[in-house]
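With this grant's support, we have settled on a layout for protein records. An illustrative entry appears below exactly as we store it:
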Amino acid sequence: MFAHLENLAATVLQAQASVLELEDHASGEFAGLVERAGGMPPGTLLTDEKGAWVVTPAAREGRTLGLLVLQTPERRPLPDESQSAIILQLARVAGDLLAGAKAQRDRAELSQMLDMIEDMSGVGWWRVDKLKNTSRCSKRVREIHGLPVNKAIYPLRAGVTQYNPEDRAVLDAALDKALETGDGYNLRLRLNRPDGQQRIVMSHSVSEKDAQGEVLSLFGVFRDVTDQEAVMAKLQRNEARYRLLAENVSDVITRSRMDGSSKYISPAIQNMLGWTMEEMTGQATDYVYEEDRPKVLKAIRTAISSGEPTRLEHRMLHRDGRVLWAECTYKAVGGPDEDDVVVVIRDATQRKLLETEVMEAKERAEKAAEAKTEFLANMSHELRTPLTSVIGYSGLLKNSAGLTPTQRLYGDRIAASSEALLMVINDILDYSKLEADAVELEKAPFDLRQYIADTVGIIESQCAAKGLGLKVDLDRRLPEILSGDASRLRQVLLNFLSNAVKFTAAGSVGVKVFGAETLEGRYRLRVEVSDTGIGLSQEKGELIFGRFTQADASTTRVYGGTGLGLAISRRLIELMDGKVGYESEPGKGATFWFEVPLDFDFALPVSVVADTVPDIGVKGRILMVDDAEANRELVKIILGTLGLEVETACNGVEAVAAVRQKDFDLVLMDVHMPEMDGLAATREIRQQPREKHLPILALTANVGGDQVQKCLDAGMDGHLPKPIQVGDLAQTLKKWLLAG
């Protein structure tokens, strides 16, 4: 660009010419000159320290754009008048060249910016020159029409032939009128692209006129709206579908503002509230039960502020005055600055009525369950209390010296009958616990062979009395120690054995025990109890594991029983993740079996192998509190045989007074007593200051889990059930007396 200027300077002035732009040489070799020249007016002549001549060129706008530097090999004085004129003329030429270069760059930047705007907005431009009968258009317009992108000027009506024939006539007429009168136009046109696509475009034009009002040219913008119209059409179709849906569903759909006013409500409102859309006020809260209106407005605000759906149940008013229940879901629509929500309203009146009925039924069932529990607790207490004396005194009687054979037989009959009665009571209570899911299984190591021997030993006398053989078959590979609830397993096995003896008149009863290790590393124990008794059919067998059920009604009369034993056994085994079953034919006996997974163990805790002989080897003074005189005498006799000193009280008042007057090492406290029960007496005793803790153990016929917990909550240290098991009583007393 500057070659001619440099040649002229070399010829006329014998100097090397350089043109520097201020913006590009703010640093480097000429930084000092640039800094000095930046504040000088155009046409200023300077010299540097080397004697170079420097002139600030002037641009057409009168701005300093750069420097003209003239350098020679040797230092030279300032130019004379003729040289200065030549230098200033060269500077003006350099200024013009710099201005031209800058203008060219500005046009390139503007063109690039326009292209970017087109790409981002999708809007192109076009211009028609009426005098030259030509047209120019942007890259975007050329691309849409399929015109050559490297060509800038076209015939006036280039691309018009690509429009739909109907639209082409409209466009031709609009162009003719615009060129004639200068009236602009805004047209929606269908364009057929060379690739076969049809696009929808918008073309808008304005005219440029001279001073006399003659049209010189047309300028317009052009935009492809195909995708936008497709989206709008889809939205319109969706809106139509949604409106159709809203107007035909049973739920009411409405759109409300934050103040509760409604923009729209579906026709289903008439079925719900009896009002037509035309009759309604437009204020949705007018139809909400007055006390619930604040909750509705709060739900709308919450939905808008959180952006999350909000659910609310509230009451509404029917046209006839009835109060209905509605279930509403509020969902904000639009942006955060909008205050609209879409509300879906469902009539919940019937459901609320059903919920009320269910709640009332639940309350009735809970009250019935509480009444049943209380009844069972009372029955247990009333039956166990006298049974404690029967079992206890029969045990003392059997162990008495000097009895005749007949007297000893009578004592045995009393003991057997009382144990049978206790088993019936325990069955009823156990099944009640199972129904209430109140049975908690224990897990402790036990000696498997000893467990079988002890359980079988309980029915040996029954087999001998009926002349039945008793065979026990233990797999020699049985583990010695397993871990599980041995007491519940004994209960199930004893039930199977008792039934086998009960329903077998002649022959034998057998027990077979075996098992195998599982893939999970546990031991699956299988126990089979077989007999040669009456057996049962498959139809009858389906019934026997049900509650209060036996094979037929005559069985109860002939053999007795509650019909709960097998039902309890099945529930207990299932709680242990096991299975229960049977194999039988009428008249050919039966085999009942259970399988249960147990864990391996290798040692028994001390408590399992501890000596159970009622010789506790410790002394102490015991206070026995019970309102039943027979029970007080029985416990006094038993504790006396254990070497313990015993005093008695017949109610809680006497117990509290006795503890205040004397020092006792332990208190055995009944619960149900007149004047003051055992729970109140315990709380009263715990409030008295004492030097050391006084153990108080519940000795009661209340054996339910919640009843035991009540004893502990009142301040008792433990619980012993009635009827009394002498071994358990002795070991418990020994534990607490040694601890004191």
The longest helix spans residues 349-398. The longest strand covers residues 198-209. The radius of gyration is 54 Å.
